Amino acid sequence: MKIYDCHIHSDNSIDGKSSVDDICKTAIEKGITAITITDHATPMPEGMTNYEHIEKCVKEAHTAAEKYKDKLLVLVGAEREDLYPANYRERFYDFDLDCVLGSAHSKPTFNEYFPEYGYRDIKECSESAPLDLVAQVVKKYYHRLASIAYYADVDVITHLTFMFRYINGYNKRGLEIEPFYPEIDNILKGVIETEKSLEVNTSGKALDWNQFMPNAEILKRSYDIGGRNITLGSDAHKKENIAFAFNNAAAMLKEIGFTHGSYFVKRKRYEYEL
Ligand SMILES: [Zn+2]
Ligand SMILES: [Zn+2]
Fold first, then answer.
1. Which pLDDT tens digit goes with each residue over 19-57?
2. Pairing of strands 34-41, 4-8
3. Centre of ligand 2 from the C-alpha of residue 7, in Å
4. Of 48, 89, 189, 219, which has fewest CB within 10 angstroms of its CB?
């Protein structure tokens, strides 16, 4: 099976540990076909603007692409954080990116909807907050992600169930996911209608939760309403986790009926056989 890892963070992300060059070397050692470096498109690390660290990542990835061109396809994109106000100039779109990932992380949701609680993120909140509050936040999160799925200029919708990794995986709160299926189905529909790709994120498998995000049941819901575009992403923040559990993910996808994975070059979708 060919391996395309379309979601990797380099040390140009504040939480990334490995350089672009080290990521490439490890990918070659692991026999990977192609990687896409997708650093966070937010103002980080501290002191750098949204533009500068993506610019640096793009330069490093282009250098690596040339250096390793006979051994590895090196692509570069960005993990676009939340929807920003219309006047926010997202200058990274000026770059010739291969792929833009669409994500909603939890911090903006807390800042906007629950400022009085002072929680920093979903990990902290879901440790102690009343479960009905956590459920409200998850609902808001899905509304936000739906607007990205339907309206944002992105190619892939990432880690659809990542809040549950913290709520249930990390904090063992046992919040049922089924009540959110209407919101989740709406996002799956948005991905299909706008011809985006749905990510199967394997980072939970590498870290603290033994589940793909989303899991087989949700992927089957997508398949059953016509979803066929699937992108595999390790969301690796260190080189060791590149393409983690991709063989298992591919086996799960094939069992559901998926036959191909997707990757993006210059924002155009291409397919490979799973
Ligand atoms: Zn993310
Ligand atoms: Zn990420």
1. 999 999 999 999 999 999 999 886 544 555 667 888 999
2. parallel
3. 6
4. 89
